[in-house]
């Protein structure tokens, strides 16, 4: 199942890891990234549908927005369920804003569990 990630940085890290490990094309998975930006709920989910994406992995550490409340974790999860799309929040494992910096965090077990 294609999966949607809200982090372009994560997509680039995975692409670099695939290149480094010389993964064969037929064994790799496609990861799509799509920022919430100022999209409406319908526009956001229409884009997912257009690409056949049936799952969302939300990697935002703090998944809330006062400016765009429809993209807060609770509202996004509820709307995804209503549209029969799987929603999974991974911000506790993969989200940014880490003490000691994100590079150091990437070596910890929690990060490796989230990326695995």
Structural class: alpha/beta
Shape annotation: globular
Rg from alpha-carbon coordinates: 15 Å
The largest β sheet comes out as:
4 strands, parallel
Average of per-residue pLDDT values: 81
| Spatial strand order of the main sheet | 2-1-3-4
Which assembly state applies to the chains in this document? single chain
- The H-and-E topology, N to C, reads as EHEHEHEHHH
Low-confidence stretches: 1-7
Count every beta strand, where a strand is a DSSP E run of 2 or more residues.
4
Q: What report would you give on this structure?
A:
The protein is of the alpha/beta class and 116 residues long. Strand 3, helix 3 and strand 4 form a beta-alpha-beta unit. It has six helices and four strands, in the order E-H-E-H-E-H-E-H-H-H. Strands 2-1-3-4 form a four-stranded parallel β-sheet, sandwiched between helices.
Q: Short description, anyone?
A:
This protein is an alpha/beta fold and 116 residues long. It has helices at residues 8-20, 41-50, 73-82, 91-94, 102-105, 109-115; strands at 3-5, 31-33, 55-58, 86-89.
């Amino acid at each position: 199942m294609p999966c949607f990630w809200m982090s372009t940085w994560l997509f680039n890290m995975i692409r670099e890891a695939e290149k480094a490990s010389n993964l064969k094309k037929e064994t790799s998975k496609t990861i799509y990234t799509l920022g919430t930006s100022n999209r409406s709920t319908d526009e956001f989910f229409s884009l997912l549908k257009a690409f056949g994406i049936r799952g969302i992995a939300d990697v935002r550490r703090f998944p809330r927005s006062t400016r765009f409340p429809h993209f807060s974790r609770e509202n996004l999860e509820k709307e995804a369920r209503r549209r029969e799309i799987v929603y999974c929040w991974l911000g506790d494992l993969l989200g940014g804003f880490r003490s000691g910096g994100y590079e150091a965090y990437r070596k910890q077990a929690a990060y490796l569990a989230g990326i695995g």
